[in-house]
Amino acid sequence: FAESGSCGDSEMQCKNGVCIDSDKLCDGIRDCPEGEDETLEKCAPFTCQSFAYRCAYGACIEGKAACNGTVECHDGSDESYALCGGIRKKGSGVRPTPKATEKPTTQTALQIGNKCQIPANLANAIITNVYLGTSIAVGSSVQANVLVNFA
């Protein structure tokens, strides 16, 4: 970690001023005290490597981590009922230090005019319109200012 206010080109500055290496961005592990390195806003524009599992908020973790009984995604989406079908391997429930995959490699523009594009590579995500309760298809677009929920 670098000192506050002196972040380099390959670093991200946390809200508290601490700099973290950009390799720690969207890896399933909260490195910033407030978790801003593991948010939908930061992670959604990226694409994970083919061998990785993509958390609902966009982070990339080891591919075999889904439904293994241990939460590796910061939001728990790798152990969600919808993904695992209620059947999970027995785990201790204790979260060990996860082994992170390489950082996401591709950034995709999400805004199209007055609409936002839901990334097409969110194969494991369940997306709903918060106000209407309706499902939103992966890869489709939604009007600006529509609140959606990723699970």
UniProtKB/TrEMBL annotation:
Gene Ontology cellular component annotations, sorted alphabetically: endomembrane system; plasma membrane
Disulfide bonds: C7-C19, C14-C32, C48-C60, C55-C73
Topology relative to the membrane: Single-pass membrane protein
Subcellular location: Endomembrane system; Membrane
CDD domains in the cross-refs: LDLa
GO biological process terms on file: vesicle-mediated transport
Pfam families: Ldl_recept_a
Keyword Iron: no
Cell wall biogenesis/degradation keyword on record: no
Keywords for this protein: Disulfide bond, Lipoprotein, Membrane, Receptor, Repeat, Transmembrane, Transmembrane helix
Descriptive protein name: Low-density lipoprotein receptor
Gene name in the database record: LDLR
